[in-house]
Write a structure and sequence with these properties.
8-stranded parallel β-barrel, 461 residues, single chain, alpha/beta, two-stranded antiparallel ribbon, extended, TIM Barrel
Length: 461
């Protein structure tokens, strides 16, 4: 608790590490809107320890970007230590990512796909804890049962972990199958260990923060998606999206980042506006924008469209716009994006699959069931124009080269095939424009430059 209280300043409002999203400019914007602790994006320890350019970009920070925790992923304790030693002077702690559930983490064998390898994790946490001058923290996902999750947390604590972030979802809960996080796992871990525990999951507004702290007993809450859609959620505010968007662009101009990061943030901030069918053209423009001027122009266009409604100069009727009737707030305000529940998603996927099965039943002209491949071939044949039966198809006669049996080039000056023409030009110092063979021209150029060079040498001497 001393580390959480004195080194970090007892933060309760925390922004999660987000790949391609929690760069310096966004961290500074989040801090301005109430975040008390931020993480860097997940950094690959092997690349970080070997690539100076990657390292310099990853450690981009400033005096206002404190306290900061640098997060690494990897599966080699020595490599993780090498990376952490290079970063320890720039942050308050090193975090080990044991919670990433994405396919890239599965391929690289890190993140949540290390959660069953306890000896390896114990070695990794223990090594960093002993060799670093700053604390080591971990971010994990819950396991299948509360009992196993508690044992997992105790193992990490015994290895030297000084703070633990527990995500209330399993590694299988992601994308359309995300669902709700189970805070009871966080509560059980908090009651079982003696280090600070942060709760992650289900944080979309400040009311969620209050409820989570009360139900779990955690010292703080961490949010990722909630922060991206409303960076002001820790201030209990829902500002018009163009306000944080323009502030963010100002920060990006001071602390540059890839255009893809900026575009991604703007898509999140204006998600509900761009989901309106009549604004599809703006969505296309934002997707194609690749400079700050274009980003600003699109933000101003949206601001001019909705500011009269925001200021009450015009009356907003949400029923006139599709996809906005289910929103609790007008679409131009920063607010959470609520995913459909996994059960509804699976039901919709099943219905779509059944419809596709019906569509995929192909039949020929006689009613016989055939494959999709054969149906496509029959359709191509049916589109071909019929060949006249009375006119026989004759193969065009080929004129042969004068020196061999190969067909001659249609534009050859000497009525030869390319091979024979090349030999003739080489032996007789000729050019053939038809075959683009320039033996004579190139020889003359070589002689010209050779004589020019020899003349320069004579002048120098």
């Amino acid at each position: 608790m001393e580390f959480w209280r004195e080194s970090l300043g007892a933060p309760t409002k925390i922004v999660a590490p987000m790949v391609d999203a929690s760069e310096l400019a966004w961290r500074l914007l989040s801090r301005k809107y109430g975040a008390q602790l931020c993480y860097t994006p997940m950094l690959h320890s092997a690349i970080f320890s070997k690539d100076p350019k990657y390292r310099n970009e990853a450690l981009s920070s400033c005096d206002l970007d404190k306290p900061l925790i640098v997060q690494f992923c990897g599966n080699e304790p020595k490599t993780m230590l090498d990376a952490a030693l290079l970063a320890e002077d720039y942050c308050s702690a090193i975090d080990i990512n044991l919670g990433c559930p994405q396919a890239i983490a599965k391929r690289g064998h890190y993140g949540a796909f290390l959660q069953d390898e306890w000896p390896l994790l114990h070695e990794m946490v223990s090594l960093l804890s002993q060799k670093l001058k700053i604390p080591v923290t971990c971010k994990v996902r819950r396991l299948e049962t509360i009992e196993k999750t508690v044992q997992y947390a105790k193992m990490l604590e015994a290895a030297g972990c000084k703070m633990l972030t527990v995500h209330g979802r399993t590694r299988e809960q992601k994308g359309p199958l995300t669902g709700l996080a189970d805070w009871s796992y966080v509560k059980a871990v908090k009651e079982a260990v003696h280090i600070p525990v942060i709760s992650n999951g289900n944080i979309q507004c400040m009311e969620d923060v209050d409820r989570c702290l009360e139900e779990t007993g955690a010292v703080g809450v961490m949010t990722a998606e909630g922060n991206l859609y409303n960076p002001a959620l820790f201030m209990r505010k829902n500002p018009p999206a163009w306000e944080p968007a323009l502030e963010y662009l100002d920060l990006v101009e001071k602390y540059p980042c890839p255009m893809s990061y900026t575009r991604g943030h703007l898509f999140k901030l204006f998600h509900h506006v761009l989901s309106i069918p009549s604004n599809n053209n703006l969505r296309i423009q934002l997707g194609a924008a690749n400079n700050m001027g274009e980003f600003r122009r699109i933000i101003i266009v949206i601001k001019n469209m909705y500011e009269p409604f925001h200021e009450g100069r015009s009356l907003w009727k949400d029923t006139t716009e599709p996809d906005t009737e289910n929103l609790t707030l007008p679409p131009w305000l920063c607010q959470p994006y609520v995913r459909e529940c996994p059960e509804e998603h699976l039901k919709r996927v099943e219905e779509k699959s059944q419809n596709q099965e019906i569509k995929r039943r192909f039949e020929d002209n006689e009613g016989n069931q055939i494959s999709r491949k054969k149906m496509k071939r029959l359709r191509r044949i049916s589109r071909r124009p019929p060949k006249p039966e009375s006119v026989p198809v004759e193969r065009a006669s080929l004129i042969k080269c004068a020196k061999c049996v190969n067909p001659l080039g249609s534009k050859c000056v000497y009525k030869l095939c390319k091979k024979c023409c090349k030999n003739k030009c080489f032996l007789e110092n000729l050019d053939c424009l038809g075959h683009r063979i320039l033996v004579k021209t190139r020889r003359e150029m070589a002689q010209f430059y050779a004589s020019k060079k020899s003349k320069e040498l004579i002048d120098v001497s």
